[in-house]
């Protein structure tokens, strides 16, 4: 019996050696690509330690009641149940965030690309100045900028916008831009758009710089006359990788809007009209210290973004 | 590339474009100018309502005041500047190297689990960083990194944004040069240093600027991961001086401090954008 088994195992080993199975093949493939893994190793190591493990911990915390002081208490799905069934403010926040994202996302994205393209059309020595102009809003601190916006939208006669609207006779009395439920989301959209020329704008700009000149020459020979034809047939296909990057960043940024809302309208905003998902998260995490519930909000937000980004990857392709 | 005058006809379309672009640009630049002019405003102008855009009687008092306040603390102000430079520099240099190393195989090699790694890293972008703060704190305090520069630098080096950006840029570049180098007998490491890094220059510049600004302005890590005053960074020190955003008492010195904070940012902007503009696309790459 024993000898028989031994013989079988020897035979299988021989077979494995001669014709490696699926796992063996995979292992050989991995060994052959050692260098690739070595290149990846430092990133993956730090990434696992400081991002993946905390993310997994957050997933775990979303099933608990955790107030930071006491150890977490397992409560199953009740955070999620509360979130979707009882928390009307959360559902409202989802609505506001989506409304905001569906305007700011596409508009900010197209604006960033068009501005980057226009800048790439002007002579090189002037480009620098324009880049600085458009990029500045995203580097100035939120405090410095909220001063300007608060003055512009102030709800009395001294507010810049109200002052001019009254002078022009469009309205008779000052409009409370920052307190009126109807104007809160539009103001949020305008201010966010103004600040949205961030990393995707820079990536577009650098990517446009990377388009080989001979493509344009070839295009001119093939009969391209107008600049918009150049844009559609040459430039956009050539910068597709950057377009994908920009789109993903745009989705991430528009669904995480919060800072501007808090600076302009406060927390909570009047009648929760500027309450975004992240504002809700902040409220529970750092004001009420219900980390378990906040983690559940983060998990829901994560799946929302994941879904939207699947669509984007499908659209703009893998490569 | 573009010409103001085509033949002898004036290019009206171009003219409108430039005027519009300039006006729009100046509008976007306004808050920076406002901030700079606030730093030089005397007290009575700072509290004027409606606020005045440009300063009328410029004064250096705010800067003196800033020096005065910081002179009283036990740790010299230069120490904060040094800390900020070390931390931001570490994050930028480390982040660029680690991300570029990771991006190269993900964009140009073919190996098992490549897609899994890529998707995992990009997916991490979508997790709101706000809730990660507490688990991250636990990781750092348990690993004994508290009160070291490592605690301020290491968590920010493996940035998914950097990896994603560089991968996308590498995908745009043709493989021919890599293959030529390999045929000439270069090892993968050599290919990476001699061929890939120079080709990535625009992406490196873009990401350096982005991560520098983030690291330079963020008071959070120094606030949470250190307990000693001599490990504080500049943004945290300024926050402490001013007592937060809404405090009226030191508005002048806060404006001066914000002005000083933004100067290095502009300098890095100038350097990196020059790097981007100078890379002539595919120089030395003729197919």
Structural overview:
The complex is a heterodimer of chains A (319) and B (287). Chain A contains 16 helices and 2 strands. Chain A is mostly helical. Chain A has a single domain, classed as Orthogonal Bundle (MetI-like fold), CATH 1.10.3720.10. Chain A has a two-stranded antiparallel ribbon. In chain A, helix 5 packs antiparallel against helix 13, helix 10 runs antiparallel to helix 13 and helix 13 packs antiparallel against helix 16. Chain A is flat and about 70 Å long. Chain A starts with a helix and ends with a helix. The mean pLDDT of chain A is 84. Chain B is mostly helical and 287 residues long. Chain B folds into 2 domains: 55 residues, no CATH class; 211 residues, MetI-like fold (Orthogonal Bundle). In chain B, helix 3 packs across helix 14 and helix 8 packs antiparallel against helix 11. Chain B is globular. In chain B, 39% of the residues are buried. The N terminus and C terminus of chain B are likely disordered.
């Amino acid at each position: 019996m024993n000898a028989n088994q031994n013989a079988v195992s020897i035979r299988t080993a021989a077979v494995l050696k001669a014709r490696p199975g699926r796992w063996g093949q995979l292992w050989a493939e991995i060994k052959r690509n050692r260098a690739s893994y070595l290149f990846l190793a430092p990133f993956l190591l730090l990434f696992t330690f400081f991002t993946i493990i905390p993310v997994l911990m957050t997933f775990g915390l979303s099933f608990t009641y955790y107030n930071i002081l006491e150890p977490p208490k397992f409560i199953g799905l009740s955070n999620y149940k509360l979130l979707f069934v009882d928390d009307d403010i959360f559902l409202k926040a989802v609505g506001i965030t989506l409304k905001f994202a569906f305007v700011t996302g596409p508009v900010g994205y197209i604006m960033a690309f068009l501005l980057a393209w226009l800048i790439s059309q002007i002579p090189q020595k002037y480009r620098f100045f324009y880049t600085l102009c458009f990029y500045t809003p995203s580097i100035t601190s939120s405090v410095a900028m909220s001063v300007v916006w608060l003055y512009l939208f102030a709800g009395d006669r001294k507010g810049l916008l109200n002052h001019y609207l009254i002078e022009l006779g469009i309205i008779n009395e000052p409009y409370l831009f920052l307190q009126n439920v109807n104007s809160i989301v539009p103001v949020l959209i305008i201010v966010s758009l103004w600040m949205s020329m961030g990393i995707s704008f820079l990536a577009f700009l650098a990517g446009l710089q990377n388009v080989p000149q001979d493509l344009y020459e070839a295009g001119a020979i093939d009969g391209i006359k107008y600049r918009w034809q150049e844009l559609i047939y040459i430039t956009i296909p050539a910068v597709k990788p950057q377009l994908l990057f920009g789109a993903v960043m745009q989705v991430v940024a528009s669904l995480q809007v919060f800072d501007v809302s808090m600076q302009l309208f406060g927390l909570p905003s009047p009648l929760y009209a500027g309450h975004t998902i992240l504002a809700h998260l902040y409220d529970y995490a750092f004001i009420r210290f219900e980390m378990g519930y906040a983690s559940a909000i983060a998990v829901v937000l994560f799946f929302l973004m994941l879904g939207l980004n699947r669509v984007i990857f499908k659209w703009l392709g893998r490569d | 590339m573009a010409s103001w005058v085509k033949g002898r006809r004036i290019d009206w379309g171009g003219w409108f474009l430039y005027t519009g672009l300039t006006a729009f640009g100046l509008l976007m630049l306004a808050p920076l100018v406002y901030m700079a002019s606030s730093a030089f405003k005397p007290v009575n102008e700072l509290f004027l309502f409606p606020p005045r855009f440009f300063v009328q009687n410029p004064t250096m008092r705010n800067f003196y005041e800033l020096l005065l306040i910081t002179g009283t603390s036990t740790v010299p102000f230069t120490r904060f500047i040094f800390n900020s430079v070390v931390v931001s520099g570490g994050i930028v240099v480390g982040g660029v190297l680690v991300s570029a190393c990771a991006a190269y195989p993900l964009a140009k090699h073919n190996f098992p689990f490549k897609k899994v790694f890529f998707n995992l890293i990009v997916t991490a972008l979508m997790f709101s960083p706000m809730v990660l703060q507490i688990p991250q704190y636990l990781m750092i305090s348990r690993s004994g990194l508290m009160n070291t520069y490592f605690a301020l630098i290491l968590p920010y080096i493996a940035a998914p944004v950097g990896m994603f950006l560089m991968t996308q840029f590498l995908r745009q570049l043709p493989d021919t040069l890599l293959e030529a180098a390999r045929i000439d007998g270069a090892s993968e490491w050599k290919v990476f240093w001699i061929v890939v890094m120079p080709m990535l220059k625009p992406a490196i510049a873009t990401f350096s600027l982005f991560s520098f600004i983030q690291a330079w302005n963020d008071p959070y890590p120094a606030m949470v991961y250190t307990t000693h005053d001599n490990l504080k960074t500049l943004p945290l020190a300024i926050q402490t001086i001013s007592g937060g955003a809404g405090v009226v008492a030191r508005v002048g010195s806060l404006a001066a401090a914000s002005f000083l904070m933004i100067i290095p940012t502009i300098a890095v902007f100038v350097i990196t954008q020059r790097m981007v503009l100078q890379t002539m696309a595919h120089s030395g790459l003729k197919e």
